[in-house]
Amino acid sequence: MASKRILLLGGHGKVSLLLTSQLLARSWQVTSVIRDSSQTNDILTKANGQPGKVDVLVRSLEEIQSEQDAQRVIQDSSPDYVVWSAGAGGKGGPSRTIAIDRDSCIHFIRAAASTPSIRKFLLVSYLGSRRTKAPWWSEEEWRATQQVNSGVLKNYYPAKLAADECLTAVASTRDEFKAIILRPGSLTDGEGAGRVSLGKTKARGSISRVDVAAIAARLLETEASGWLDLLEGEEDSGEAVERVIRDGVDCTEGEDVDFMKKTYLK
Q1: pLDDT tens across 218-257, in order?
Q2: Among candidates 34, 38, 22, which has minimal Cα distance to 62?
Q3: Which of 7, 43, 85, 144 sits between 20 and 30 A of 16, alpha carbons compared?
Q4: Residues 6 or more apart in contact with residue 220 via CB below 8 angstroms
Q5: Listing from the earlier edge strand, what are the strands of the sheet with 120-124?
Q6: Do residues 224 and 180 make contact, with C-beta atoms less than 8 angstroms apart?
Q7: Is residue 42 pLDDT above 80, yes or no?
Q8: 81, 7 in Cβ contact below 8 A?
Q9: Residue 13: how many CB atoms within 10 A of its CB?
Q10: What ranges in the chain are assigned the alpha helix state H?
Q11: Closest alpha carbon to 228 in 241, 238, 217, 218
Q12: Per-residue pLDDT for 266 more than 90?
């Protein structure tokens, strides 16, 4: 694949730093958006010994108040693909979660979709971000998911769900615009196993950040689209990506896509 330019939002996050290395190894160019200039060196050193190139934009995603604000960031980077791996991380209370995980993300989704040169948007979400029970889950799995979403994730869940649904709806208006919503389980540190469960997974489980970054990079190389749940598993990561594309796996099954369109299409 020819070199691509990636706008990586939330560039200093753990998954993003790992993903940056993966993309640079593919000779791609990465513009990493961070909020604190002191993080710049952490990003730039990722290019050492790599064939790709990286540069940094210092912007506060919390201050993205409109689609026009997001469009200005896009214009400063001229990307082919956009990756959202940002979030409030539970810091700053509910209002900050809404401002970043929902509102800022949606502004970038709309700005990217309205930019003809942008062909893909990969959003890192989480496994429990859905409105209804996945048909392949048990009732017990769904009850446990609902308890988490209404408990410790009561602010995060509606923000991420809104972003997931908006991207799904907006992508339906452009055939050449691929929306990839990668939905990992609980994130762990340490070395990745390179073996995963991708697509219609169990409702609970974990996955290393290394494997999340590796799967994200592989998906960006393909024509993948839709919701893809991700846990550690037994299948080789490359074979898993090939399978979900070949079989047209999309974990929106069971969700009301028409509701998404009515809610988020202007």
Answers
A1: 999 999 999 999 999 999 999 999 999 999 999 999 999 9
A2: 34
A3: 144
A4: 4, 6, 23, 81, 83, 120, 122, 180
A5: 53-58, 29-34, 5-9, 81-84, 120-124, 178-184, 226-232, 195-199, 235-236
A6: yes
A7: yes
A8: yes
A9: 18
A10: 14-25, 40-44, 67-77, 93-97, 105-113, 139-150, 156-171, 209-220, 237-246, 257-264
A11: 241
A12: no
Rounded-to-integer distance, Cα 89 and Cα 101, Å: 9
pLDDT digits (tens, 9 = 90+) for 84-117: 999 988 888 999 999 999 999 999 999 999 999 9
**235-236 and 195-199 beta bridge pairing:** antiparallel
Q: Coil, strand or helix: which one is 15?
A: helix
Q: Which residues contact 147 (CB under 8 A, 6 or more apart)?
A: none
What tokens does 107 get? 């502004």
Strands 235-236 and 120-124: unpaired
Give the separation between CA 219 and CA 261, rounded to whole angstroms: 24
- Is this structure's pTM higher than 0.90? yes
- Token pair 């408990």 is at which residue? 151
Q: Closest by alpha carbon to 82, among 197, 163, 189?
A: 163
